Amino acid sequence: MRIFITGPAGVGKTTLVSRVAREVDRWGYIVGGMITQEVRERGRRMGFKITALDTGEEGTLAWVGNGRPRIGKYVVYVDELNRVGVSAIRRALIEADLIVIDEIGPMEYMSDEFVRIVGEVLKSEKPLLAVVHRRFADKFRPLGKLYTLSVENRNRVFTGIMDEVMKELREG
């Protein structure tokens, strides 16, 4: 089972995968991988942090500033992505019942290690729930089920994804 979620910024993709991860955990299954969240200061988005679902370890994915590599106004901290995100996904491949990757996008693709570990996940039989940047949606569409999230459908999509994930975990 591979489920991919895409949609515009701010529609609730991270909230949805976080809710699924919490619910699956409450049912006694092991959830691993990473979540990406924006960091705001005085109402302005300054960057993004990554959190390992299994340990809670955090790192900075990107921050406004000068430096390389960069995506738009953000400097991408590839070493932090590798230390926190890639390590969490690697552990999930071994230990988790469900792998969560939030998100697969241009910032994350700055890391060769990230690209490699996503390839390993896609070759595995482990259930996967991943957020994919809208630019990457067509690339991932043939690899699983792709949901395009909107404000109008997000509660219905959450219910559908929970049903699919729980069915897969119970049968697996």
Which features characterize this protein?
38% helix; nine-stranded mixed sheet; 31% strand; 172 residues; Rossmann fold; alpha/beta; 9 strands
Tally the helices: what do you get? Answer: 5
Strand residue percentage: 25-35%
Name the poorly predicted regions: none
- If you average the pLDDT, what whole number results? 95
Specify the overall morphology.
Answer: globular
* CATH homology superfamily: P-loop containing nucleotide triphosphate hydrolases
The main pleated sheet reads as: 9 strands, mixed
Spatial sequence of strands, sheet with the most strands: 5-6-4-3-2-7-8-1-9
| Backbone structural class | alpha/beta
CATH class group: Alpha Beta
Distance between the termini: 10 Å
Q: What letter string, H or E per element, gives the SSE order?
A: EHEEEEEHEHEHEH
Report the strand count: 9
Describe this entry's structure for a reader.
This protein has 172 residues and is an alpha/beta fold. It has a single domain, classed as Rossmann fold, CATH 3.40.50. It has helices spanning 13-26, 78-95, 112-123, 137-140, 154-171, and strands at 2-6, 31-41, 44-52, 58-64, 70-71, 74-76, 98-104, 128-132, 145-148. It has a nine-stranded mixed β-sheet, with helices on both faces. Helix 3 (112-123) links the parallel strand 7 (98-104) and strand 8 (128-132). Helix 1 (13-26) runs parallel beside helix 5 (154-171) and helix 2 (78-95) packs parallel to helix 3. The radius of gyration is 15 Å and the shape is globular. 37% of the residues are buried.
